[in-house]
Amino acid sequence: MDVAQRLLLLKAGSRALPLSSRAFETLVFFLEHPGELLDKSTLMAAIWPKLVVEENNLSQQISALRRALGERPEEHRFIVTVPGRGYRFIAPVNPAAGSATALVAARAPAPVAPPGLSGPLSLKEPTEEESPNVLTATASVAPTPVRSPSPTQPAPPRPAEWFPFGWIGGTLMAVVLLAASWATVYYRGASKPAKRTSSASALAAIHSLAVLPLENLSGDKEQEYFADGMTDTLITNLAQIGSLRVISRTSAMRFKGSKESLPQIGRDLQVDAVVEGTVTRSAGRVRITAQLIEASKDHHLWARSYERDLKDVLALQDEIARDIAEQIRVELTPKEHSLLMQIHPVDPEAQDAYLRGRYWNSEMTPDGARKGLDYSRKAIAKDPSYALAYAGVAESYFILGLTGALPWGDAIPKQKEAASRALELDPSLAEAHASLAQIRWFYDWDWSGAEEEFKQAIDLQPNYALAHTTYSAYLLAMERLDEAVKESERAADLDPFSAPTIWWLGQTLYHARRYDDALRQDRRGLEMYPHNASIYSAMADVYEQKKLFGEAFAARMQALTLEKDPNSATLDEAYKRFGYSGFLRRQVAIMEQTPQSQIDGGGYLVHLYAQLGDEAHAMTLLERAYAERQSAAVLFVRTAPELDSIRSSRRFRDLVRRIGFPQSPGDKN
Question: Both 247 and 338 in a single domain?
Fold first, then answer.
């Protein structure tokens, strides 16, 4: 672009592109702020100073620019629309050496054509732009110096310049708009990597990032599962990089459709950078755009657009992860590089079914798990070698067992079979290793085998929050309390907005007898999830150990109220008449007649009996849990503070011996 001559050229020596003066000024403003998110009010203040215009005038200029630059509606090679926020110019901007006097007065006459240059030379405003849709005119439209878009005091007039920008000593600017080659749209084979939009020296160190939910541009809400699935896959691929902290899916999805600014999102997640983008699926093809943005400054660092056949979409996701790693200068280990270079051809119909299944599994409900199981089976029927589909089956069975929709004795063997098959097909699947680790710990009581699988899962995917959470639970059962707390804190660091992760960190601290820390963690959890009954119950556990029974009762009742328990009034009356022990006894009486309470082997009943000092009933339930291997209660007997009242009994010590825990520093039995 020749600023002095007010011309836009596709390349040096070519004909000028037709562009109205308003569109030209819009482009120049973009060029002074490359990569920055510009809201609509800022753009309108710069382009129509001292005028109040409707937003559709700005939309017209953006559309005119895109047409002039040859950008199709579905492309994002130059200008990206950030829904609800504004626009971002993402193409590289390169200043060319030139005269310091190249900038001319704001309303200078149209230039005379330079020798040998053909095409339209007059950049006269179209009729509709000479009279924009003005709501309220605050000043004459006569030529005046342009005001600063800042909401604070305007900058003083600059009579020698017409541009409202801070280019020092006005220069001849050139924009390298490589319309075809820079687009980096991939149809087959390798292409040149996209360029940064900021200098390497200016790039802040990036040690952590979040992938925000990719926007579905298909226009079909039924395709949301596909966009979410692409987001999941990109997170999973980046999570394999050990030197990079990558926020987990649960916390990232919290910002789907969010109006929060990127700096605020960065502060919420405590990350250096974010990746945002779009996904479109059509006619057997998938197009993904990705942008890397420095969170604290909302500064665009890199962008790229990709397109492939659906059967190659997994390889495409690997390539995006590699490109992002390259841009943030993360040094990959040989194993990480190998994982991101794997070729994953997949049947498009099988992948579609798998993504639908993963979408339903993410609900963590019995109905969702059943639908997820059905779709994963369809994926396997279409492609029996699709390892991720078997991992989806294992996940569905785990949820069905966890929610009580299927007895553990029925769910676990099927989960184990599916996870094992997934690993036969692809030994690098961290999810399948974590699933097998849960089975070997929770059901097989294969302590060493479980730890081996947990470590393998975390080694393959260091940012896998769920693996850190479940490994923490295993370490707690092994009475390795400091390690358990460390793993739980790591999980919370990776998934800071996951309610189960927040709750489990509080429980880990409770088992470690760090009661004040546990209470602080639970209170932080309630700040984010004030209606979470599990967190109130966790607080009640802590209050019981601190002998603060009034506070414990209040927390228990709050949990029961949130769960809409029909016995709340009866329990409240029991507390008023007989105190906290009366409340506990009334709970026991109610639960003993409720078959649903036996789903987890009576875990909470064990807690109640132990609190009441009723060793006989507590041990009967623990013995049943030992025989059926269907309760977590028996796995945490060595660390659960509520069992202190029965810990010295002969029956209890004998049970611990029969379980066969490995020796640990905290084992006193």
Answer: yes
Q: 664 in a domain, yes or no?
A: yes
- pLDDT number for residue 446: 95
Give the residues across from 309 on adjacent strands. 285
230: Cβ contacts below 8 Å, ≥ 6 apart: 214, 279, 286, 288, 313, 317
Q: Which of 128, 153, 107, 105 is nearest to 53 (CA)?
A: 128
Coil vs helix vs strand at 25? helix
Six token digits for residue 406? 């299927």
Q: Are strands 134-137 and 94-95 parallel, antiparallel or unpaired?
A: unpaired
The end-to-end CA distance of the chain, in Å, is 80
Kind and range of the H or E run holding 44: helix 40-47
Taking only the tens place, the pLDDT of each residue in 202-213 is 456 889 999 999
- Domain final residue pick, 293, 311, 345: 345
| Alpha carbon of residue 308 to chain centroid | 24
Least confident range from 139-143, 203-207, 280-284, 469-473: namely: 139-143
- Enter the tokens of residue 430: 């961290």
Of 567, 514, 574, which Cα lies nearest the Cα of 545? 514
- Given a cut of 50, whether residue 630 has pLDDT beyond it is yes
φ, ψ of residue 107 in degrees (nearest 5): -110, 45
Q: How far apart are CA 391 and CA 361, in angstroms?
A: 11
Q: Please check the confidence at residue 180 and state whether its pLDDT lies above 50.
A: no
Report pTM. 0.68
Give mean pLDDT, residues 390-402. 91
3-state secondary structure of 375: helix
Report the 3 state secondary structure along 61-118. HHHHHHHHCCCCCCCCCCEEEECCCEEEECCCCEECCCCCCCCCCCCCCCCCCCCCCC
Segment 95-115 mean pLDDT: 41
Contacts of 144 (CB under 8 A, 6+ apart): 49, 50, 106, 157
Task: Identify the CA nearest to 519 among candidates 492, 497, 540.
Answer: 540
pLDDT value at position 250? 87
Residue after which a domain boundary falls, among 432, 463, 494: 463
